[in-house]
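User: I'll paste a sequence; please echo it back and then give the predicted structure.

Assistant: Echoing your sequence first, then the prediction.
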Amino acid sequence: MSSDPHDRPDAEAEPPLDVLTFGRSGVDIYPLQVGVGLEDVQTFGKFLGGTTANVAVAAARLGRKAAIITGVGDDPFGRYVRRALRELNVDDRHVVTNTEYATPVTFCEIFPPDNFPLWFYRKQTAPDLQIKPSDIDFDAVRATRLMWLSVTGLSEEPSRQSHFAVLEARARKQFTVLDLDYRPMFWDTPAHATEQVQQALPQITVAVGNREECEVAVGETEPEKAADALLAAGVELAIVKQGPKGVLAKTRTERVESPPIPIRPLNGLGAGDSFGGSLCHGLLAGWPLQKVLQHANAAGAIVASRLECSTAMPTEAEIETLLAGGDPNEHLEDSLAVHFATASAR
């Protein structure tokens, strides 16, 4: 395994990052036909993917200085991931090139409004789960204003050890965030995930997840109880996504609910990552919690109305357009109309 320095400047001369994520990156292979099974799809698009890569891109799109700790293979897809990160204004200096395992690819099917099956091709493992503590710049970890980690990184070694080393280095510094992103294919059993998440929660200041992910984390699906259980586990801000009921956020002194923002869905994949990037932006801006959630909901809705994930992340102007009742997609090419027509014809 080797790390490509890629013309890195002196780290001491660099100002601290706003956002540093740690976790999955890869290539999304998405069909260019909507409402069609993979066996019948004729053409695909290739996009940067991976939840923590998407969160970094979403934050960068909103003007934040962002980077990612991840791994890629020593292969063409790995080179593509690094190039795509840079093109989307995410610093790739903390990306490790792995000479043993291939860069993972993910396929999906798109059946609007709410069915988007995923297939992960990352066996036996993937480079992002092979990051060792020795691969990590802990000065950057300590200095970044917001650290974003994903539960998937706790699923196997050496990534698990590296994640706990990052948490130890952060020492509960403000805005140490855990995305409760639970993917069953990465775990032997839900109980195994629960064990690792509960070990991590006391070292986290912000936890974000949907009702099913909260059940794995703290044994609760009812949003109020789930938020309270996350707070009891040690987090300072608990955010529970409630699907069509919007989002609930609680601290020990504040409770806020934010309704969903209606928009015509195309592909819901990546909406949570866009929510996450906007959440990072709002927290760092010091906005009131209601405004943080409102903007994050709008950011997620915009990505759900677009085909891809990373390159679909909205700008602040597009978020404001949607919140003002406008159409953030009016400037896009007519391809969206073609996709919707394809879906409607089936």
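The radius of gyration is 19 Å. The first strand starts at residue 19 and ends at 22.
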